[in-house]
TrEMBL record:
This is dTDP-4-dehydrorhamnose 3,5-epimerase. Pathway: Carbohydrate biosynthesis; dTDP-L-rhamnose biosynthesis. GO terms for molecular function: dTDP-4-dehydrorhamnose 3,5-epimerase activity. Pfam families: dTDP_sugar_isom. It catalyses: dTDP-4-dehydro-6-deoxy-alpha-D-glucose = dTDP-4-dehydro-beta-L-rhamnose. Coiled coil: none annotated. Its EC number is 5.1.3.13. It comes from uncultured Thiotrichaceae bacterium. SUPFAM superfamilies: RmlC-like cupins. Belongs to the dTDP-4-dehydrorhamnose 3,5-epimerase family. The lineage of its organism: Bacteria, Pseudomonadati, Pseudomonadota, Gammaproteobacteria, Thiotrichales.
Amino acid sequence: MKIIDSKIPDVKIIEPAVFGDERGFFIETWNQQTFTDAGLDIEFVQDNHSRSGQGILRGLHYQMEQTQGKLVHVITGKVYDVAVDMRKSSDTFGQSVGIELSDQNHRMLWVPPGFAHGFYVMSEMADFVYKCTDLYAPQHERSLLWNDPALKIEWPLLDGVKTQLSTKDIAGTPLASADTF
């Protein structure tokens, strides 16, 4: 398993070893010792699985209390995954990392606490799974406006495919007035 720094060093791109043959493949998606050896002492308390159709954009979500770190990957399909630094004291505040995650590249992304997170489905359908470091707390959840020009996120929106968002995400808060850490 390779753990790679992204342009925001706290966000990590993980490339697991894939062992495959004509029967299929095997991937180890989580190993406490491997992550600890890489300086990521993480404890997970909740696993989630989301299925979404093409053109659906979920996010950008974060929790002000019970902040969640997330280890995310796609088991079916392809998404563009984004993490935005919401830590006001950080040199990378307001900056983002965007990466394609798919069932073909098997990449994962570590999104630490203090980041907003979201993804856009590029394939016909995608199954997206994530491990969280704290429990979901809807009363503390915030939604950062996904298309805020201040974020400079270059979403790879598909031509001819309507982008679908939840009511909460349509009403997301721009970075300039968002709650931060």
